[in-house]
Amino acid sequence: MQEDRLNEIIRKYKAGTATEEEKAFLECWYLQYQEQDDHYYDLQERLEDAEEVWGSLQKQIHQSKQFMYWPKIAAAILIVAFGSIYFLRKEISSVSDTQLVKQDVPPGGNRAVLVLGDGTKISLTDAKNGEIADQCGVEVKKSADGQLIYTIKDEQNSSEKLDSNIIETPKGGQFQIRLPDGSAIWLNASSSLKYPVSFNGAKERKVELKGEGYFEVAKDKTKPFIVTSGNQDVKVLGTHFNINAYKDEACVKTTLLEGSIQVSCEQNTELIRPGQQATLSNKHFKITSIDTQEAVAWKKGNFEFDNADIKTVMRQLSRWYDIEVSYDGELPDLHYSGSLPRNNNISVILNMLKKTGKINFKIDKKNVTICK
């Protein structure tokens, strides 16, 4: 990026007309050069109005306690590991503006299909807000904030027949559901949840998950809540946890945020505590303490990567952007760490990866090719 281009962004920043992407690049620049004293002061002298703007940027940065989760910076930066980690400390002249692509793919959104007990399918993407079904004394409503809410209207009828419903999110979709017991579940893209419309008369609250879901289970000591996902059962009385059980992932990951849960697979059973993750592979559990931020980032509207290889990154992108990914030739062994918002078009994310200087990409409608 040339000095005249940076001067233009600085002027727009001062005037309050800079785009979020321009702000992010400017803030990224500031952090890079602040740690390189000679270059920093030399740069400040050469740029118009730099001192005033740098002071504003410094104030913003000090207000943030955790750099990696500062939204605007995180939107522009990834930490990349080539054997060892470095922080995009390239000369400014090598940092080009975001390149435009002829075709782009927008992010996903609240999209899902509800399958009733009789097989009727209702598109929750198109359904109007308000009541959309009444089953066995249980009212089903779509709220204005994009939730599917189950409410028991008739206690007697709701316990006579335990019909099951299924909510399915496509690639590029997500949805939130609130069950009659008050439990809330967020479904990530390309996932499904099967559940009874009422837990009345049942000894347990049992649901089936495919894909990924975040659970906030309402407490009921008399009726345990059980989530079945593949070969794994998760048993709780009331707690917050995330399950990643996609078929194209190597293992099932269950991450606990609060309370306690029991995970089991055949004869193997483990108890996990808050801040721990149970990884199920080959019917055996591995329990580790982790930073739970990565596991629940999707629910908060972010991608979170921690030393993830390019194929792991692209699997997440393919689900959220509803794309097909292919690889052209052998790629370098890159690993990425960092946070990026999920509300950007895919070209923004791919350009961040491209700035490592080691990969490139091509977009053709819903097909993305990763290459050198």
Describe it.
The chain crosses the membrane at residues 69-88. GO terms for molecular function: sigma factor antagonist activity. Residues 167-261 form the FecR protein domain. Residues 303-370 form the Protein FecR C-terminal domain. Keywords: Membrane, Transmembrane, Transmembrane helix. The protein is α+β, with helices and mostly antiparallel strands and 372 residues long. It folds into three domains: 3-63, no CATH class; 78-105 and 301-372, Phage tail protein beta-alpha-beta fold; 109-295, Jelly Rolls, CATH 2.60.120. 23% of the residues lie in helices and 38% in strands. The protein contains nine helices and 26 strands. The strands form three sheets. It has a 19-stranded mixed sheet that branches. A four-stranded antiparallel sheet has the order 2-1-24-22. Strand 4 (113-115) and strand 5 form a beta hairpin. The longest helix is centred in the first third of the chain and has 15 residues, at 20-34. It is globular and about 70 Å long. The chain starts with a helix and ends with a strand. Residues 34-40, 61-77 and 79-101 have low confidence and may be disordered.
